[in-house]
Write a structure and sequence with these properties.
seven-stranded mixed beta sheet, Rossmann fold, 2 domains, 594 residues, elongated, alpha/beta, Cytochrome p450-Terp, domain 2
């Protein structure tokens, strides 16, 4: 088993990934970081399903921690930086999630498994995995590890900042606290704090029958730690851990004084050995009883209390130097309340509006409208010139398509009914959908799926044909292969400078297939804009396939149409107000009676 090197962990700048979410535990880690004086939280990312981020506090400031649904979505920089983890998922997912993280994080030191009921087979497999990768893991069913003044990994030491202060977790002490029990490790931390000797480090190996790190290994870590001068150990009936500890004392592998208490003598009152709270807390033989273990440790040289009060008295009589309590502003972290909404886009700072961190006046003076639009829609401070130019042209190109289309008609009818600008505009915008204006996003979905899954264009075309469905982005009423749409030609020319043009090339390949069926089944303006925008975002803004897919689920690729066409719809509203033709009504000959 690789050594849990406490001295190395003291020097480690923690970069923690949480597998699963447990808000109170995560917030406790952030509070500990803040009270230590760290500039940034040690918890960098959460791997879980559901939201894309979770809101927490760093001090009194509200922050967001990104949530990814897979460790595969971590950036290469994050994979290289991860050195600690805490696994908060349920028992059935502990093994797979831990091994998956271990496989992609080359600089990982170790972690904590919080979940209970880890199957023995899974624990043994994890044990072999960490041996091969020179790691350490506490658990299952461990509340974690704390090194006062340096590191907190788990719920150990409490989840309230006032508990940290009461346990003097900001001062480096001299007594290592080791226990299987999460509840008792916290109690002993508090008792050690009251002795004024302070805690050098504390850990819970976990309450499972086969913890991945054993008390014996934890003892060896305490022996190797130069800051640790004594060891406080809380054990229970069941198992043979104390026999291993006794062997360490007798062999001289552990020379530091051990003060111990073994709980569970009450079990002797029962005719049949009872099962206590933890998985292995049941004496299967005389040697596993609490009384037998106490005697074994006493004979080996440990100070063992016959009662918990005796145990505390032994702790207080250790011949160690007292340390000072270090107080922090823990009370300042109480009564925090989260904002009603979160925004990463814009905010008011002392009366000045900031958009993506920039002053709005500075933005207006130094950025084009297209640059502001695409930056805000993407939530990115900086965008490439290629993206800006593509956006600018598309915004100008889509501004109107005459009064014939459904959106303009709805706006015109509403305007002639005497309604206001917003009502008329809304009527037109609400018409946008699969048959009017929504084809850009639908085409983006198709081109992305084709490139990502390496589909053959012929297979895609045949699939749509077999289902009797149209391919969004293909086909035009007027233009044909022998009379191309000049708008498509211009849009595609905007990305001539890109290297790969994967999506445009795929769209053109699909067009080559559909043209074999009919001359007007060409790449239309919706399909061209979708392909060009995909290529620009992929090559110039660094969006991978998953990020592009996320944009399609949000209908991002319709956004430029909606914005640009809003100008045209408002223009039709004002045109109707100028003409003042009155209420729109169909004549009898304009309605076919069935």
């Amino acid at each position: 088993m690789p050594e849990l090197n406490i001295e190395e962990l003291r020097d480690l700048e923690p970069f923690i990934v949480c597998l699963g979410s447990h808000p109170s535990t995560i917030q406790a880690l952030l509070d500990f970081d803040y009270l230590l004086g760290r500039d940034k939280p040690s918890v960098k990312v959460i791997i879980a399903t559901g939201r894309k981020h979770e809101r927490y506090f760093f001090g009194k400031k509200e922050i967001v921690i990104p949530v990814l649904d897979s460790v595969k979505k971590l950036s290469e920089e994050e994979k290289q930086s991860i050195n600690l983890f805490i696994n908060l998922v349920s028992a059935r997912r502990i093994l797979s999630s831990s091994k998956e993280l271990i496989s992609i994080a080359p600089n990982l030191s170790g972690g904590v498994i919080f979940g209970e009921r880890l199957p023995e087979k899974h624990a043994l497999e994890l044990y072999e995995t960490i041996k091969q990768n020179n790691l350490w893991i506490l658990g299952g069913a461990s509340v974690g590890l704390v090194i006062p003044g340096k590191l907190k990994l788990g719920a150990i030491g409490g989840v309230d900042s006032r508990q940290f202060e009461a346990s003097n977790l900001f001062a480096e002490g001299q007594v290592a606290v080791i226990s299987s029990s999460g509840g008792m490790v916290n109690e002993i931390i508090r008792q050690v704090a009251d002795t004024k000797y302070g805690v050098s480090f504390a850990l819970a190996v976990g309450g499972e029958r086969f913890p991945i790190t054993s008390p014996k290994e934890a003892m060896l870590s305490a022996e190797a730690d130069p800051n640790t001068k004594a060891i406080a150990y809380f054990g229970e009936l069941g198992g043979t851990d104390e026999a291993d500890v006794a062997d360490l004392l007798r062999s001289g592998k552990v020379t530091k004084p051990i003060v111990a208490y073994i709980a569970g003598t009450v079990a002797e009152l029962f005719d049949t050995p009872p099962q206590f709270g933890h998985a292995k807390a049941m004496a299967g033989s005389q040697a596993e009883t609490a009384r037998a273990k106490r005697e074994l440790l006493k004979e080996a040289g440990a100070k063992v209390g016959d009662s918990f009060a005796d145990f505390i008295n032994y702790l207080r009589r250790l011949d160690l130097m007292s340390i000072d309590n270090i107080s922090k502003d823990a009370d300042d972290l109480q009564n925090r309340s989260k904002g009603l909404i979160a925004s990463s886009l814009s905010y008011d700072e002392n009366g000045d509006v900031k958009i993506l961190g920039k002053d709005i006046l500075d933005l207006a003076e130094n950025s084009s409208f297209a640059a502001i639009v695409i930056s805000m829609l993407l939530g990115k401070q900086e965008i490439s010139k290629e993206t800006e130019n593509f956006t600018d042209f598309v915004l100008r190109l889509l501004v109107d398509h005459g009064p014939y289309v459904s959106g303009a008609m709805n706006t015109i009818v509403t305007a002639r009914a005497g309604r206001d600008l917003v009502s008329a505009l809304s009527a037109g915008l609400l018409t946008i959908g699969p048959r009017f204006g929504g084809a850009i996003n639908e085409a983006a979905v198709i081109w992305l799926k084709g490139v990502k899954n390496e589909l053959k264009p012929s297979e895609l075309v045949e699939d749509y044909a077999s289902r009797g469905e149209y391919i969004s982005g293909i086909g035009h009423r007027k233009y044909r292969v022998d009379m191309p749409d000049p708008r498509v030609t211009k849009v595609l020319s905007l990305i001539d400078g890109l290297k790969e043009r994967k999506f445009t090339n795929f769209a053109k390949s699909v067009e080559a297939e559909t043209l074999q069926k009919k001359g007007n089944l060409i790449l239309n303006i919706d399909g061209a804009i979708a392909a060009g925008l995909l290529d620009v975002l992929h090559e110039c803004e660094g969006y991978d396939y998953d990020a592009l897919a996320e944009l399609t689920t949000q209908e991002f690729f319709n956004a430029l149409f909606v914005l640009s066409r809003s100008v045209g719809l408002m223009a039709h509203f004002f045109d109707q107000k100028r003409l003042d033709e009155g209420l729109f009504r169909l004549s009898d000959d304009q309605v076919t009676k069935l």
